[in-house]
UniProtKB/TrEMBL annotation:
InterPro entries, sorted: CinA (IPR050101), CinA-like_C (IPR036653), CinA_C (IPR008136), CinA_KH (IPR041424), Competence-induced_CinA (IPR008135), MoaB/Mog-like_dom_sf (IPR036425), MoaB/Mog_dom (IPR001453)
Cited Pfam families: CinA, CinA_KH, MoCF_biosynth
Protein family: Belongs to the CinA family.
Higher taxonomy: Bacteria, Pseudomonadati, Bacteroidota, Cytophagia, Cytophagales
Identification of the protein by name: CinA-like protein
Boundaries of every MoaB/Mog domain copy: 8-175
SUPFAM superfamilies assigned to the protein according to its UniProt record, in alphabetical order: CinA-like, Molybdenum cofactor biosynthesis proteins
Gene source species: Fibrella forsythiae
Length: 417
């Protein structure tokens, strides 16, 4: 079996450390490396300072077979990657004729005048293999030093992705004998990480050495990622499917999907399969349920619309909630949630109505109804199902969790119907 190829990704730029831009490059690079069998072992972000970049390169070279650098390749003085690479390798800078012709052609086609700074983009460390960038002026560079491959890429995502896809990934596959890496994601909801781990402990302990399990928790959900390594992709796929089949009897009631599935996609798929239309009534979530659903392409086939009934007046006027219900039980109550779900179903003429009402916080709570008290409801022609949530003190977290739990309650009712 081929040995594991380890990679490290270094992003260069003060703008990343200042929080002025979001680094999406490392996530994309890691995904693409995994797809060809290279394991990313570390990601590092550093500023535009030569000493810091040199330290990051030295540390990466001590533990990785492939070091990928993005950023710092522009025409301005703060772009110091090439100079720093020269210092790291102990070489000089030379002007690459092919790179110069490409930069010159780039400006000629656009009728723009080249400056000396632009011409300097064709200057490369003398030990670099020039990798043509057909998507911009910053060069790609490949270094093969003492068994370690260093790759330098522009930081602009479009240019970086194009160079990686069409130039660097094929070269990496030629350079290294890659193991095959396959992933399988099991998506669970409504069970905490520790409870989940306890339930599947025996199954996890019995996994073969070449299949590893990782727990990836988020709001209201835990993803179980199985990673298999070997030489035969089809065989690994069969083994992963077998392990999923083995664990499903233990956690099946909490599994809502696999791999790239999101809870809203699963719900919309079920609504389409059953040819049902959905209406949403929201109070404490303020429209997030509807926003989450409408992120999914094709949702208009099953989603009629929603009402954000934040005040009691809107609950009464738009959704038909009985004033006596509000007076006796309050806006945050099981009866109110039920009437909201039933009311939006009637108002919009849909097959299903769902609703949220609660105290998202950070204030507004009482001893009887503290912050985090939430009621959710799902109404269909078979009746109305409610659920009481006892969440925490943080508003944004409460809104996100309420949205997740409501969509899961809807999923459960659609499966049972």
């Amino acid at each position: 079996m081929p040995t594991t190829i380890r990679a490290e990704v270094i992003t260069i730029g003060d703008e990343i450390l200042f929080g002025q831009i979001i680094d999406t490059n490392t996530q994309w690079i890691s995904t693409e490396l995994t797809n060809i069998g290279i394991r990313t072992v570390r990601k590092t972000s550093v500023g535009d300072e030569a000493s810091v970049i040199l330290a990051a390169l030295s540390e990466a070279a001590a533990r990785a077979d492939v070091v990928i650098i993005t950023g710092g390749l522009g025409p301005t003085k703060d772009d110091i990657t090439k100079k720093t690479l020269c210092e790291f390798f102990g070489v000089g800078m030379v002007r690459n004729q092919a790179a110069l012709e490409l930069v010159t052609g780039f400006f000629e086609k656009r009728g723009r005048e080249m400056t000396d700074l632009n011409r300097m983009q064709a200057d490369l460390p003398e030990n670099a293999e020039y990798i043509q960038n057909d998507w911009g002026t910053a060069p790609g560079m490949w270094f093969d030093q003492e068994g370690i491959v260093f790759i330098s890429l522009p930081g602009v995502p479009f240019e970086m992705k194009s160079l990686m896809t069409y130039r660097m990934l094929p070269k990496l596959k030629e350079r290294f004998e890659m193991p095959v890496i396959r992933h399988k994601m099991i998506r669970t909801i409504g069970i905490g990480e520790s409870f989940l781990a306890e339930r599947i402990e025996a199954w996890e302990d019995a996994l073969p050495p070449h299949i590893r399990l990782a727990y990836l928790p988020s709001f209201g959900q835990v993803k179980l990622r199985l990673t298999a390594t070997g030489t035969d992709s089809d065989q690994l796929g069969r083994e992963l499917d077998e392990q999923v089949a083995n664990v499903m009897p233990l956690i099946g009631n909490h599994v809502y999907g696999f791999d790239a599935d999101e809870i809203e996609q699963v719900v919309i798929r079920l609504l389409k399969e059953k040819d049902l239309m959905l209406g949403v009534a929201e109070s404490c979530t303020g429209g997030q349920v509807a926003a989450t659903l409408t992120k999914v392409p094709g949702v208009s086939a099953v989603f009629a619309g929603g009402v954000v009934s934040y005040s009691n007046e809107v609950k009464i006027i738009a959704l038909g909630v009985n004033p006596e219900t509000l007076g006796q039980f309050g806006a945050v109550s099981e009866p109110t949630a039920s009437e909201m779900a039933e009311g939006v179903r009637i108002m919009l003429g849909t097959d299903v109505g769902i609703a949220t009402t609660g105290i998202a916080g950070p204030d507004g709570g009482t001893p009887d109804k503290p912050v985090g008290t939430i009621w959710i409801a799902v109404a269909t022609d078979k009746g109305t199902v409610t659920k009481h949530l006892k969440l925490g003190q943080y508003r944004e977290q409460n809104i996100t969790l309420t949205t997740t739990y409501l969509l899961n309650l809807l999923r459960e009712q659609l499966i049972e119907s």
